[in-house]
């Protein structure tokens, strides 16, 4: 008994010691931040840009530091998969970085917790007007803007023309631009070659995007009730269930992440998929497939809607150098810097001026698939929008829909039953 | 120490305290990184906490919600399926491997390290490689087709019936070498004279195995059972990499569920409650193991 008591005592002492330690260290940091008024240091986190874009980012930082000798930028690159966890840990321990590159979905969760600076207030109007309207609005939840848009992309379909020819299809005419056409390609390719004609990814929020493109409305106006249990919603469930159960799309559509999609395309197993963001990777890993790749506009439903994805820059409220942080965020996303970035990788800028550059309209002679991706992507920017806006409890909603459509595709439920299930789940989540 | 010799009473006291002084560094580290987070998690399980705003005490609500959550029960069943499937294989198969590599053969070191390689292989790499093995047009289906065992490809990782079992195989594959080493140490600690004595008593090789080897290995079997069942309860990486818990949560285990709740949905309090349940289950499991299997080996 005595021994146990002693061990317990030591443990408690240890704990007190530890908690005292952690308290004093965070206190120390605060003092450091406020006393250092001469030169401020901004911590800047990006999402998986090293090592490919190290030179570019370091160049931008060097330019900025030259123009603002009183501000120093400390850059940290975080793997995409770890970013959400890292930023959360940092925010909860009150050591948040000053400028962070996030996506609207995750940023909206942080905004929901009131952890981000409101950009409508922090950014002067003359600066705000420089950004594309759609890109700016993509970072809004409940009417407040929680981020500055950085780079954008619209979906461009990649088609392996070799498989089209093998299946007796004409790449010029038969490349699908609608879901119905994609279904036809899937059928013909499967029958003629045994390969897959179409690989629609159901990953992450893509199920919701497919549904919106097919004309389903996700929620009612004020976002309090599910609104997708309609003819259109049912059609979406039915469509993917048919494809899956007739083995017209790979079974990995349900479990696979994007890795398996690219693997299969690079392996010459899939004729058509939406994955233009991976074009550089395909060029490097599978040059033969790349040579036969023909980019085309995004596949959509009867609404003609196309989706845009936005990378953004947020400033956490915990920052002690808000002005400097905003200054850097605006510098990073200005026309000149964005244009330079876009020339390194097929992405689109979020500022109007950069988009006017001929680089986005003129493919030049003998364009490579990479150039075509850029041109197609820029051309459909006007008709693209953020199809699934940031919503509260987004992750739960998305999961509920994914579970329902999975049940339908796997034959555990009929499409209508699955849709009813999703509606019930959404109503429960939305009423929270 | 020399000073304490001067005073007998003082010496006694110092000597009694000395071991605890040695324990302080270890306890501090354990306290900081194991016990403190553990207590913190227990506290959080009674709160609503999203990592950003302050934790709000809500009593047993998290547990109530947890017990009414079908998905929680399903992941619990999956976890037990995993334990039942993986533990016997990890307890029994490595014994054979250990006996095999315990032979005095030329180059036995090579075989020992060969069996150990999966243990040191990064699970991410192994997971991706196994993913290819299991693909519809992957290696496994190809071999089974060649042997005329199957007529059409089996959807190893993409069917609700097989996904979890396919991942189990990877866990077993990865664990074999590790437990083999433990058994190997056990085998080598059995004194030669026990076998000699058995021989004098007229025991054949089978008797030697059943009456000497296995009883002497029992403490190691106990350790392996406990370690492998705890590891199986906490399985995460294989599943995260290979199936992500799908299709339709059929391979989602408790830890993956906790991870998703905590880091995707930011329900830290709720995830902590599930974590506490996992902790209790692991504890009960270990106690049962020790009680049942440790009986004969308490000497």
UniProtKB/TrEMBL annotation, chain A:
Query: What family is this?
Result: Belongs to the bacterial solute-binding protein 1 family.
Concerning PANTHER family, the annotation shows: MALTOSE-BINDING PERIPLASMIC PROTEIN, MALTOSE_MALTODEXTRIN-BINDING PERIPLASMIC PROTEIN
Q: Which InterPro entries match?
A: SBP
Classification via SUPFAM superfamilies:
Periplasmic binding protein-like II
Q: Which UniProt keywords apply?
A: Signal, Transport
Annotated signal peptide: 1-20
The reply on keyword Signal is yes
Q: Does the keyword Transport apply?
A: yes
> What name goes with this protein?
Sugar ABC transporter substrate-binding protein
UniProtKB/TrEMBL annotation, chain B:
Q: Which UniProt keywords apply?
A: Cell membrane, Membrane, Transmembrane, Transmembrane helix, Transport
From which organism does this entry originate? Virgibacillus siamensis
Under what name is this protein listed?
Sugar ABC transporter permease
Topology relative to the membrane: Multi-pass membrane protein
UniProt subcellular location: Cell membrane
User: Which residue windows are transmembrane per the record?
Assistant: 20-43, 80-101, 113-134, 216-236, 270-290
Pinpoint the ABC transmembrane type-1 domain residues: 76-289
Entry's family note: Belongs to the binding-protein-dependent transport system permease family.
Query: What CDD domains does this protein's entry cite?
Result: TM_PBP2
InterPro entries for this protein: ABC_transporter_permease, MetI-like, MetI-like_sf
């Amino acid at each position: 008994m005595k021994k146990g008591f002693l061990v317990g005592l030591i443990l408690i002492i240890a704990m007190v010691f530890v908690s005292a330690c952690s308290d004093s260290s965070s206190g120390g940091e605060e003092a450091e931040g406020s006393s250092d008024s001469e030169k401020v240091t901004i911590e800047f986190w990006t999402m998986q840009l090293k090592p490919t874009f190290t030179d570019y980012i370091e160049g931008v930082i060097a330019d900025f530091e030259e123009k603002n000798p009183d501000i120093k930028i400390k850059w940290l690159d975080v793997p995409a998969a770890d970013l959400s966890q890292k930023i959360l840990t940092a925010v909860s321990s009150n050591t948040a970085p000053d400028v962070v590159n996030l996506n609207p979905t995750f940023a909206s969760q942080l905004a929901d917790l009131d952890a981000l600076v409101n950009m409508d207030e922090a950014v002067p109007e003359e600066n705000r007007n420089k950004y594309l309207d759609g890109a700016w609005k993509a970072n809004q939840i409940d009417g407040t803007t929680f981020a500055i848009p950085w780079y954008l992309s619209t979906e461009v379909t990649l088609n392996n023309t070799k498989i089209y020819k093998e299946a007796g299809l004409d790449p010029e005419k038969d490349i699908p631009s609608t879901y119905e056409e994609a279904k036809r390609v899937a059928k013909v390719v499967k029958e003629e070659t045994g390969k897959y004609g179409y690989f629609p990814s159901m990953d992450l929020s893509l199920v919701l995007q497919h549904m919106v493109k097919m004309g389903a409305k996700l929620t009612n106006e004020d976002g309090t009730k599910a609104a997708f249990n309609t003819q259109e919603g049912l059609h979406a469930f039915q469509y993917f269930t048919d494809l899956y159960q007739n083995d017209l799309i790979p079974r990995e559509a349900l479990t696979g992440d994007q890795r398996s999609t690219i693997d299969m395309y690079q392996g010459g197993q899939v004729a058509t998929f939406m994955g233009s963001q991976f074009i550089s990777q395909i060029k490097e890993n599978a040059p033969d497939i790349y040579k036969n790749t023909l980019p085309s506009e995004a596949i959509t439903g009867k609404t003609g809607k196309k989706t845009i994805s936005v990378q953004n820059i947020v400033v956490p409220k915990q920052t002690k150098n808000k002005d400097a942080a905003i200054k850097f965020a605006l510098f990073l996303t200005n026309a000149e810097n964005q244009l330079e970035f876009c020339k390194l990788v097929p992405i689109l800028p979020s500022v109007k001026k950069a988009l006017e550059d001929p680089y986005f309209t003129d493919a030049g002679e003998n364009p490579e698939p990479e150039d075509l991706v850029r041109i197609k992507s820029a051309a459909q920017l006007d008709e693209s929008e953020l199809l699934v806006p940031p919503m509260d409890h987004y992750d739960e909603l998305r999961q509920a829909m994914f579970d329902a459509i999975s049940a339908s595709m796997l034959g555990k439920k009929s499409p209508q039953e699955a849709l009813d299930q999703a509606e019930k789940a959404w109503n429960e989540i939305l009423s929270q | 120490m020399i000073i304490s010799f001067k005073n007998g009473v003082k010496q006694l006291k110092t000597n009694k305290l000395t071991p605890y002084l040695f324990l302080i560094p270890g306890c501090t580290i354990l306290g900081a990184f194991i016990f403190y987070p553990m207590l913190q998690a227990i506290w959080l399980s009674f709160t609503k906490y999203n990592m950003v705003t302050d934790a709000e005490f809500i009593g047993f609500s998290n547990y109530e919600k947890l017990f009414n959550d079908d998905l929680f029960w399903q992941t619990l069943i999956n976890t037990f399926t995993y334990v039942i499937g993986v533990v016997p294989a990890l307890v029994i198969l490595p014994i054979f491997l250990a006996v095999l590599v315990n032979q005095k053969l030329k180059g036995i070191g090579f075989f020992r390290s060969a069996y150990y390689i999966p243990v040191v292989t990064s699970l991410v790499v192994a997971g991706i490689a196994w993913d290819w093995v299991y693909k519809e047009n992957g290696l496994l289906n190809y071999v089974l087709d060649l042997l005329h065992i199957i007529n059409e490809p089996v959807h190893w990782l993409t069917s609700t019936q097989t996904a979890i079992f396919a991942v189990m195989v990877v866990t077993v594959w990865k664990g074999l070498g590790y437990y083999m080493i433990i058994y190997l140490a056990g085998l080598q600690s059995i004194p030669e004279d026990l076998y000699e004595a058995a021989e004098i008593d007229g025991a054949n090789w089978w008797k030697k195995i059943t009456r000497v080897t296995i009883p002497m290995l029992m403490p190691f079997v106990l350790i392996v059972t406990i370690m492998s069942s705890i590891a199986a309860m906490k399985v995460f990486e294989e599943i995260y990499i290979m199936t992500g818990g799908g299709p339709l949560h059929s391979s989602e285990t408790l830890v993956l569920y906790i991870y998703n709740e905590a880091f995707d949905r930011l329900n830290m309090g709720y995830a902590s409650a599930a974590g506490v349940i996992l902790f209790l289950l692991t504890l009960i499991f270990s106690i049962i193991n020790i009680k049942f299997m440790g009986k004969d080996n308490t000497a």
